[in-house]
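Teaching assistant's notes for section 4

Start the section by putting this record on the projector. Ask students to predict, before seeing the second block, whether 3-oxoacyl-[acyl-carrier-protein] reductase will look compact or extended. Collect guesses on the board.
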Amino acid sequence: MTIIEKKRVQTSEEANKLNGKVVIVTGGSRGIGATIAKELAKKGANVVINYNTSFESAESVVDDIQQFGGSALACKADVANLEEAQYLIEKTKSQFGKVDILVNNAGITRDRTFRKLSEEEWNEVINVNLNSIYHTTSAVINTMLDQKYGRIINISSIIGQAGGFGQTNYSASKAGMIGFTKSLALETAKSGITVNAVCPGYIETEMSAAIPDNILESIVSRIPMKRLGSTSEVAEAVIFLANSDYITGQCLNVNGGVYM
Ligand code: NDP
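Reveal the predicted structure now:
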């Protein structure tokens, strides 16, 4: 006698865990954040695109998403400011009813060798890159704890792992994000929340376009894959972590092998 096991076939909607999720991408108006926002929307997530100054870019990301039938909203908030970050979370909840995934992506550089670095340049980078993740995460954590589900994905950097010439402020902010990721992962693991970091290497965006040509050439020559990464390659890592239930406290390197 043959026993035929009946397997319940998953519908593609069930298999796609991101369908219907509510996501905030800070700094989603340009570069890596814009691609992350679009790729998440393609998976059926409702995406809030946060920006600080680039209104037109943020609106064009929303337009792109709406053109393929996705759901998106642009929200202006300076995430270096606690009240504005709180507004971003409240606006998302009032629009979509919840927040499932927070991608802390907003970031700036103010590169200068340490002897020339002003206190203002130090504080600006620490406020936008590191204090912002306290602001957004503290505003959303109770919502995630109550719903026993959350994904927090922090876009750190290879510079936070390996250091960077003229980047003490940026490197400190990005290394700080990694410590934050691991500690918060420990505190929230039993509550259905995962906290991870993505550490991009050198990615083709406006930020890397600001690096002088000769320096960029020498950087590329040191990358085992001999090219810059693309914003979609970073977005793939974010989607992977957003889908994972059992990965927490990790740094996922997307760097062409330049730091292992
Ligand atoms: P871009 O300069 O292209 O974009 C930065 C984004 O951050 C913009 O959307 C900008 O919005 C937003 N932003 C800046 N300040 C604030 C603020 N105070 N509040 C809200 N949003 C803000 O950067 P990238 O796409 O290159 O970088 C994205 C992230 O990836 C950053 O955290 C960066 O450190 C990290 N990274 C980048 C790498 C690269 O090679 N490009 C490598 C490793 C890490 P607006 O224009 O409206 O101000």
